[in-house]
Amino acid sequence: MERSSFYAMLFRMKYINRWGLMRNTRWENLSEHSLETAMLAHILAVIGNRRLGKCYDLEQIVLHALYHDCAEILTGDLPTPVKYDNPALRGSYQELELAACRRLAGLLPADLREDVAPYLSGAGLDQASKKLVKAADRLSALIKCIEEEKAGNREFVRAKESTMEALLAMEMGEVSVFLAEFLPAFALTLDELDPQRPAAPPAQ
Fold first, then answer.
1. Measured distance CA(37)–CA(24) in Å, rounded
2. CATH code where residue 98 lies
3. Which SS3 state, helix, strand or coil, does residue 177 take?
4. Which residue among 3, 49, 82, 197 is least enclosed by CB atoms within 10 Å?
5. HSE-up of 59 (CA within 13 Å, CB side)?
6. What is the domain extent for residue 44?
7. CA nearest neighbour of 62 among 47, 41, 43
8. Is residue 56 part of a domain?
């Protein structure tokens, strides 16, 4: 029986913190970001299919979103200002990410590799679906900025503005629906989110 360290490696995503250049009131790790991106990609695809006449493959989109940052297990999270500082550096980092994806895929048993490896690198996903996954990734970042701002941390104010600008520039109906219908609730407190929630008992 061939033993594999692939999932033991993937489960180390929770040790990789994002937003390394920023002061955080609460650190966000790569594992939770990946889950949130997958959930956001799912609802964006559902909105597209139900309301906008699209034909997204929900399973493919969710799986690609779930695995989209796995390369960072080996590369670490390179801050966005550094990653996009110049085209040459961006190209080199993309090559590094692809090499990391190949290394991770190599940890899979040979008979399972072709069923998992494409999700690591985004291979086989059409351009519209790739754009949707990227939108979900940016929405996750926007929500992080909102949560930090709600906690009184102004460190994320500019990041929130630039992330919103990038989302709007994508000109996606799915994103517009999410921003109008779902995003405002992220600024609410727990009691505002669920008015029917039983009140806490008075202090003794």
1. 20
2. 1.10.3210.10
3. helix
4. 3
5. 2
6. 6-176
7. 41
8. yes
Q: What are the tokens at 95?
A: 């090559």
Q: Is residue 70 part of a domain?
A: yes
Name the pTM for this structure.
0.90
Residue 194 lies in a domain: no
Residues with Cβ within 8 Å of residue 64, at least 6 apart in sequence: 41, 119, 122, 125, 129, 130, 133
Q: Please write the tens of the pLDDT for every residue from 114-168.
A: 999 999 999 889 999 999 999 999 999 999 999 999 999 999 999 999 999 999 9
Contact 129, 118 (CB under 8 A): no
Distances, alpha carbon 109 to alpha carbons 9, 93, 105, 126, 156, in Å:
14, 27, 9, 27, 42
Q: Domain total for the chain?
A: 1
Q: Exposed, middle or buried: residue 186 (CB in 10 Å: 0-12, 13-18, 19+)?
A: middle
Residue 69 lies in a domain: yes
